[in-house]
Design a protein that fits this description.
With about 100 residues, the protein is mainly alpha-helical.
């Protein structure tokens, strides 16, 4: 009897949910959210109007502010990584 040897660098197949199963779960979540919105609408809560107003407010933000926010967030992430590098370099000198 021959046994198959693992190929160098090959990753094991993850044991988990299939892609189809995950998409079904996402569809169930979207359906549940839609049902909740319909129920709230029947109860007199204007969720769709609120979402419309929210989207209008988001569209009203100038593009330059969004670009500036992305630049500053990127810089913050880079500086956080640099600070962790310094912390680890001090904790483990010579590595």
């Amino acid at each position: 009897m021959t046994e198959s040897l693992p190929i160098a660098g090959a990753q094991p197949v993850p044991e988990g949910k299939s892609r189809k199963r995950r998409f079904v779960e996402i569809a169930i979540w979207f359906a549940a959210i839609a049902v909740v919105i319909v129920i709230l609408d029947l109860l007199g809560v204007d969720v769709t109007g609120w979402l419309s107003d929210l989207w209008d407010q988001i569209k009203a933000v100038p593009v330059s502010y969004i670009v500036a926010g992305l630049v500053f967030q990127t810089l913050q992430t880079c500086f956080a990584g640099l600070s962790y590098y310094g912390i680890l370099a001090a904790a483990y000198p010579g590595r």
